[in-house]
Design brief:
H-NOX domain; 2 domains; 4 strands; globular; binds protoporphyrin IX containing FE
Length: 179
C-alpha cells in the first residue's frame, strides 16, 4: 500500500481525535517511526496493523474505521488530484470511470500501485452494480470511497453489499441506487 494512504489515515486520526491519540498509536502499537513517503510502497500488513491500532485507540469497530476512512480518503484524494474528478460530470459517470480512467492515471503517477479491479452492470437506469475484486478485500474501504464520492457530487444514494468476498464470494457486489 502506498504511503499516501498512510498519510491520509494519519490526517484523519489527528483531525478527528487529536495528535496525542496518533502519537499513542505510533508509540504503543507500531514498531516504526510513522514516517511514510507518499509514493513508496509498504506491506499491506502494516496498513492492516495501523487500522487495528486506530480501532483499539478510538473504540470504533474495524469496519467502522475502514468505512469512515474511505469517506475521508475520497475527500483528500479529490483535493490532491482535482483533475481526475473534473472529467466526470456526474456521480454515475465518475463511478464508471474508476477502473478505466482514475486508477489507470494512478498507475502512471505511482510505481506499481496495488489497485483493485472493478467491473460494472446496470440492471436499470437508477442502479449501478460495481463488482469489486482485490486480494486485499478492502470492500468496506470501497464502500466509504463511494459514499465520499456521493457527497462530493451531492447525489443521494442507497448502497448495498449483498455479495461479499469475506463470505467466500470471488468478488463483492456493491450496488449503488441513485435516489
Ligand atoms: C469512489 C471512488 C474510488 C473507489 C471506490 C476506489 C477504490 C479503491 C480501493 C478499495 C483501494 C484499496 C486497494 C484495494 O482494494 O486493493 C484503492 C486504492 C487506491 N486508490 Fe482508489 N478508489 C476510488 C477513487 C480514487 C481516486 C479519485 C484516486 C485519486 C488519485 C484513487 C487513488 C488510489 C490510490 C493512490 C490507491 C492506493 C494504491 C496503493 O496503495 O498501491 N482512488 N482504491
Amino acid at each position: 500500500m502506498k504511503g499516501v494512504i498512510f498519510n491520509i489515515l494519519e490526517e484523519m486520526v489527528i483531525e478527528h481525535k487529536g495528535m496525542a491519540v496518533w502519537n499513542d498509536i505510533l508509540n504503543q502499537e507500531m514498531n516504526d517511526e510513522g514516517v511514510y513517503t507518499a509514493g513508496e510502497s509498504y506491506p499491506d500488513e502494516k496498513l492492516f496493523a495501523l487500522v487495528h491500532a486506530v480501532s483499539k485507540h478510538t473504540n470504533l469497530a474495524i469496519e467502522e474505521v475502514l468505512a469512515t476512512f474511505g469517506e475521508f480518503l475520497f475527500g483528500k484524494l479529490a483535493a490532491r488530484y482535482p483533475v481526475f474528478i473534473e472529467g466526470a460530470a456526474d456521480l454515475k459517470t465518475f463511478l464508471k470511470s474508476i477502473d478505466s480512467v482514475i486508477h489507470v492515471e494512478v498507475k502512471k503517477l505511482y510505481n506499481n500501485p496495488n489497485l483493485p479491479s472493478f467491473t460494472y452492470s446496470e440492471p436499470s437506469s437508477d442502479v449501478l452494480v460495481m463488482y469489486y475484486h482485490s486480494p486485499r478485500k478492502l470492500c468496506l474501504l470501497a464502500e466509504g470511497l463511494i459514499r465520499g464520492a456521493a457527497s462530493h457530487y451531492e447525489t443521494p444514494i442507497q448502497l448495498s453489499h449483498p455479495v461479499c468476498m469475506h463470505q467466500g464470494a470471488p468478488k463483492c457486489e456493491l450496488s449503488v441506487r441513485f435516489l
